[in-house]
């Protein structure tokens, strides 16, 4: 293992050295229209954490329908989608870690969901693209400011009111009945600024019963006082209705092939109703089943600058309500859920002590709460289920120390504490009150060395501490009796432990004047008490609770380049290699022992393409995406209510996409996209085929 790691380090640096071919002397363009620009400063005097930005500008790159679409081409990010138009089960992984192992923030505050039933760790469709200005990505647990993370941080920064009033109206139409209508308006009046947006989105769906109907609204207000302090108030609301994917796998033909039940849709697996503590076991959804969900986010922040820095205090609250229907099921199902009722506040200070030291420190308190749920199997039968709270508290301090003109050192220390307790109690097994607590110190060290004006290197070693989510705690604790989980032979109670360990990274960034830039880095994560839990399959069976494995390791290489081939033509490419290894006692989930690697982690991933900008302003992007084969879990019913989970392999695939944006005049533009130009047959999630060639066209007017 360590031999392989050293070989990858040498190979990565060698590859970077080879990629140095001179091009032209003009600036590398930073497109301002509908392109996704992944910016990572080649030389940064104040960024030892090596933050990358996905700069969306005017956000509508091709057919992108949610933020997960924007992240597909980023090195070190894996996106798994099952269907079109932003499915709630789109999965984003940062360096191989799913969203419960990294933090998703909206203007610096968390938006990860907490629900145990009907919720998801992160529903990327709850943040409208049109409110996004850029996305900051910190890979790895480098920053002391952000706790409870292993993979890093994705911080989504929304747009603010502009000094000059502006309005945009946009329409888009695409394959499978996709259409959207957007409106936004921003402006200011002296010290007051505002940003308003509204939109609708709908699609017939590529898979059976998987239609989409969504509406969203958001308002962001800002006011600057005479003291230069700024008060910001925001509220956003997303209302979504979506049909559950219904299994379209009919009778067996011969030994292997199947035919579709409904020939209008492809053969595919379906969604599975997760078991309710007061309801039935896991089962498939029926035709006509659907869910409705309303997500409302509230936030309030005040920032006050002072002579040597600034301080900020902020508060947020999430309110998610969801209803599920299966009117043709046996039995019929109606569930009321409140998957996310979280809230939090934080105070932070940034201050420059002198020419060499810039410090930041703060206090954060989060209450992750998923609220109650009720299950109705008949009009007269109700099963109320309990709620629990997971309270996390964090205190941190960081020092950005300019040791000398060439060396920048970031030293950080973070203290985390968590407390889990029951919020609402019922009778029977649910009356038990787990009062679980834990705490940890996490030191951080990040070093950046400027070799010369064109090249810098960086190194980091950081301790991480990841508290189990409310959902993991719940399913570990749920089963009746005196043990945690369905542990055989009366084995003593074993409560989930937090994940902890160390993350290492080394890298180099360089440029050739203003003609090209290159970046390479290697990372290694050593994880103790790795939690085994698959939110898409294992949680649907009572018999398989989450539990701790002894050890897991994740390591890899990321290579990136952007080169200007001509004054108006740019070549871009990135490559990600990632590996994993886990070990421990697999007796609670035998499917985990079928491979020593972590599921859903492709070993190879690459993006390559060309961006062309004509003098008249038209832009064309032709890009290809490669994803190597990967081990996945495949869940299928072997009886009316029993899931069989087994290892499966998703084959590799390469798809080619085209984007064209053309300005009609100074305030109007049209866009056109073709995805999967060569009609490649592939799957990103096992059992859910992706569509072939798809098309779309958009029109936008600004005034």
UniProtKB/TrEMBL annotation:
Residues 1-25 form the signal peptide. GO terms for biological process: siderophore transmembrane transport. Keywords: Cell outer membrane, Membrane, Receptor, Signal, TonB box, Transmembrane, Transmembrane beta strand, Transport. SUPFAM superfamilies: Porins. Its main location: membrane. The keyword Signal applies. It comes from Sporomusa ovata. GO terms for molecular function: siderophore uptake transmembrane transporter activity. Residues 48-153 form the TonB-dependent receptor plug domain. InterPro entries: Beta-barrel_TonB (IPR000531), Beta-barrel_TonB_sf (IPR036942), Plug_dom (IPR012910), Plug_dom_sf (IPR037066), TonB-dep_rcpt-like (IPR039426). This is Outer membrane vitamin B12 receptor BtuB. It is found in: Cell outer membrane. The keyword Transport applies. It is a multi-pass membrane protein. GO terms for cellular component: cell outer membrane. Residues 281-677 form the TonB-dependent receptor-like beta-barrel domain.
